[in-house]
Structure formats: structure tokens, C-alpha cells
Amino acid sequence: MDIDDIFKRPPLPKSTVGTKRKHEAPSLDPESYKSVRLDTPSGPAPTAGADKGNAKAKGVTVQDGSDDEDEGGAGAQGGEFAPNGDADYFAEEDEDGRFFGGGLNTVQKEVLSIMEGSGNDEQLPGEDLTPQSVRKQLLNLEKAVNKNRDLRTRFPSDPEKFVDSEFNLLEAIRAVFLFSTAPALAYPLMLENSTPNTFADLLSHENMDVPIAVVEVLEELLDPEDLEEVDEDEEDADGAVEKKRTAMKALLDGLVEAGVIDLVVAQLQRVNEEDEGERNGLFHTLSLIENLVSLSPALASPFLSPKSPFLSFLVDRLSQTSKPVEYDQNRFYAAEMFALVLSLPAEVVQGVNEARQRVGSEGWVEILLKVLSTYRKRDPVGSEEEEYMENVFDALCSCLSSPTPPFSNPSNPPVHAVKAAFLADEGIELLVLMLKAKNMSRNRAIKTLDHALQGRQGALLCERFVEALGLKTLFAAFMGWSDDKKKKKAALATTHEDTEHILAILSSLFTSLPSDSPPRMRLLAKFVENDYEKIDRLLEIREELENRISKGVDPVLAQEMDEDELYLEKLDNGLFALQLADYVTAWVCMEDDGARDHVLMLLSRRDKSLRDVVAVLNEYADNIGEGDRPEDAGEDAVPTEGEERKAILAELARYLESLA
């Protein structure tokens, strides 16, 4: 057995494996254990680097005895040869007797005995926690904290005086890991003993190994996956999972009250990733923050404040693409956390929309675009880098789709900081290039274009998209073609989600491009060229969506649903894409007589009419929210985007009804 196993912490209770990002532990280096004492043969040992910056403890070495000493029957360190007369101890020598006599003294045999016993199927520590054992562990923690604080105060310039107490402190902190096996029992006792306040003090400890140990313990104690895990024994228990949830919430509230959450975020600026232990500590810190947000999304509000360094740290960390591969875990996790906090619902988390706008005003849009530009010519390597790319795209989409505050003065509309920065930093041009390149980033570029062109604030971006020759590539994806007209074969697969985003882009173009402007004329020309082939495809998509909805909604169950439930069921099966397709169809009919006649002919072939299109548009209008109006808005105030969309739908429906 490897001697490194002596110094590893005892096995911890395993949590349910879910989708949460897991830390990939680095290979263990024996050199990192030279500073660890062997005063006791059991108990959790500190991790590597616990004495960094302090005086090193005496190392443990295993020395080979000389041939003369072996022949004399005594080890170099005074231990007996073949201790306790254990003849079977040397049963593995070969037939020539070359290995007769192990040369091990008493101390060395004790070490091997520990290693051989470590694999026995014994009861894990903490499997049978009691209130007495929990209180004892908490008392040990307080004693270790007080002793270490006292020694550091008395001998601030002599680390040798307090290094042993630091090891004991780390052991006492890690003993709390086991409390996660019985939260309903242990967590209330932690609150009773003011453990959250103790953790708050330890997060400011001079030795970074101590805050990192606290973070790792809190990460385990507050793992939301434990709430989803129900053991067979717990299924019959009375509210076992609910008791877990209650205990975890109470502990979380205690940690918030003690100021632990703010201190955890502050740790991000203390971490030196050049140190492997601190680099791993950063990963666990991000994991703990993810746990906190998962348990209580409202806790993200302080992180999103302009006073918090959290968002700026994440942007800086996710953009560091030139570091060695061992740093990639933290870069990928930073992107995931950035996308997560920006996607939180504004109804639950205060400051989310303001934080999204900061991405534009702080110059972070340019940083995100530079990261994404890497994938214009190449695909990400491996699933983790692919997820990293998707997270950066998702963060950008969340920011581009964030609403601006309602306004009443049409001459002074608010500026959408993200879309303004996206336009200035040539984000549209980059996405068009990604569409042409047809790499893995193509589908994400389509989605991002959809979010960028939406709403009043997307009008300038719509014009820039046409000017950047984006229509050619967009319609190639719409038709499922290659850009090369001589090879009208399928390019990358266009999914239902891609089709919905393409229809949304076309909808935004028809809504925002000024009437009779050159960009709008170019858009209409695309539907007219080549014998209306784009209209053929549009009506083909419409038919596919109708069939999908009719197959996806059970007519028997539909009769038992109320109106809202039925509408949501239809949305799940593609109704929104159908609404967008009919919105585009109505605009094409209104703008060009030849296109209108072609639509009528195609509908009649399918036993449909414009009344079917009108019915979809009316249902669409009935379910659009009008949006928030400013408190000082008068009768002549600027209509909200929802009100404006409903008015457009009403005009389109009236026009189509006049033709039916």
C-alpha cells in the first residue's frame, strides 16, 4: 500500500451525484506531506500546504539499515528485528532466502500495520452520530480555535510555537464534515454552539489553509443535492427529507446572520492560484457559492451589487485563456457561475437587471466577445470546453434580453448599455462570421442574434445585421442549405430550437426595420426571389408545427384542461414558433401582392386559409402582457413594447381578415 494513504483524511459521506460540477482532484505528490507529524496514528490529517508561510514541522523519514545492522539482528533505530517474534511476518521471501528478514524496526512495522488496517471494513467515523459526540466535536473545535489564537498572539513571529496547534485546528474543522450525514441532529447543535460565528472568524485566518478548510466543510454541509437524496431507510421515515431541509435552512440563516456569506466572496480576492492548494480552494469557494444560490436565490443580491467584487472577478477569471491546462477547471467554473447568476429571475433576486446592464457599461461585453471569437474558426475541445463556450453565450444572451426601465419621454429613451456596447464592439459582425463558418458555435450564434435583435433597443442592431450581409447566411440556415447555391445540400443540422430562433429574428427584422428603407427592401426581396422559395419553406415549417402541436396535445386530456393549462401545453409543443411563423407570413402578405397570392395558393393546397393564420395571431395577441408603464405616464405616453406588439398583431389580423 502507498505510504501516502497514511495521511489522507478519512473517507467522507458521498453525496448524490448530479449535474453539479465536481472538482477533479490533482494527483497527490508525496513531497507535499513532508511537513506532517505522525504523533498519532489515526484521525484526519491536514492537507498539503497547511504550514505554508510558517516554520515546517519535523519530517518523517524511513531509513534503510546497513547490512551489518541487519546481520546483527537490530535496526538502526534500536527497534527489534522481526518484532514480537513474528515468524510469519517474513513468509514472502523467495526460495533462495534472499529477502529473509524485512529489516523493519518496531516503528516501521507499526506504520505498516496502520496501512494494512486502513482497508478493513470498519464502521466509518460519524456513521452513528449522537448529540454527545456532536457536542464533543464542537467543543474540540472551540478549544482548537482558542489555543491557536492564543499561541499566535503570544508568538506572532515564531511559527514553530503555533504550527502544531494549526494542524490540530485543521483536524477539528474537518471533523465537522461528518455532520452532513445527520443534518437534523447536528445543525441545530451547531447553531446552539454559535458555530457560524466561529466559522466567520476562521474565514479571516492568516493561514489560507484554514479558510479553505472552512469553505470545504460548508460546501459539504450545504449541498442541495443531499435534499434530493432519499435512502431506502428514509423513505419510511416521517418527513426525513423535510427535516433535512429545515435544518439546512436554519444553518444557512445562521451563516447569513454571522456574515459568513460576504466573507466567502471576499476569499476570492485572497486566493493565489499559483499555489495548488489555493487553486483547489478557489474551486470549492465557487462550488459553495453555487450551493448558496441554489438553496436561496435571493442570497445572490449582495453578489450582484456594484460594491461586490464578485462579477468583476468572474469576468476576469473566465477570460484568462492563456494559463496552463491545470487552471482550466476554475476558468470553466467562473463562466458557469457568471451565466448562472445573470440568469436568475429578477422577480426573486434584486439587482439582476442592473447587474446585466453593468456588463455593458463596465466594458465586459468586449471581453466576452473576445473569448467567443476563439470559436469562430475552431470547435471547443472536449465536453467541458464546449460547456464553457455555451455558458459565455448564455451570459451574453441574458444581458442582451434584459429589459430597460419604462419611460414616458419619447425624446429621451433609456439606453440599453449591453446592446449599445454589442453594436460598438462589432458583436453582430462576429455572429455573422460564426454563421458562415458553420462550426459548433453556429447554433449558439443564432440564439444570440435572436436576443440581440429583440425590442425597440434592437432596431439599430437589425439594420447593422442587414448591412453586415447577414441575410444571406440566415436564409441559408432557414432553408437548410449550404451557402454555396450550387450545392443546396443540408449544412449543419437545424434543430427545432434553431428554427424558432430564426423565425424570431425574422419577426424582429419585420418589426424594427423602417418602412421603405433599403434594409427592409432587401429583406422582402429574399422572400420574392427564386419563385418564392422562402415562402414555400415558411409554409412548410408552418405545417410541420401544426402537426407537432396536434400530435403533442392529447385531445382527451385537452378537454379536461382549463384554458391556461391548454395554452401552456401547446406552447411546450411548438405554439410560439407557429405564432412567429404566422407573424412573418402576415407581414409578407401585407408587403407584397405576389407573395400574398403565393401564400393563398399554398394554404389552399393544404386545405387551410388565412382565417387559420388570423386565429393564431389573435391567440398570440390575447396572451401578450402589456408590460409595466411608468407611474407618471399620461394618455399620450409612449406605449410599452407589449402594447405596441398587440397593436401590430391587431392590424395584421384585420388586413388578413379583409382578404379571407
UniProtKB/TrEMBL annotation:
Coiled coil: none annotated. Residues 48-59 have a biased composition (Low complexity). The keyword Phosphoprotein applies. Residues 1-89 are annotated as: Disordered. Residues 104-215 form the Beta-catenin-like protein 1 N-terminal domain. It comes from the Eukaryota. Its main location: nucleus. GO terms for biological process: gene expression. Keywords: Coiled coil, Nucleus, Phosphoprotein, Repeat. It holds the Pfam family CTNNBL. It is found in: Nucleus. InterPro entries: ARM-like, ARM-type_fold, CTNNBL1, CTNNBL1_N. The keyword Nucleus applies. GO terms for cellular component: spliceosomal complex. This is BY PROTMAP: gi|472580443|gb|EMS18243.1| beta-catenin-like protein 1 [Rhodosporidium toruloides NP11] gi|647395138|emb|CDR36339.1| RHTO0S02e00628g1_1 [Rhodosporidium toruloides]. It comes from Rhodotorula toruloides (Yeast). The lineage of its organism: Eukaryota, Fungi, Dikarya, Basidiomycota, Pucciniomycotina.
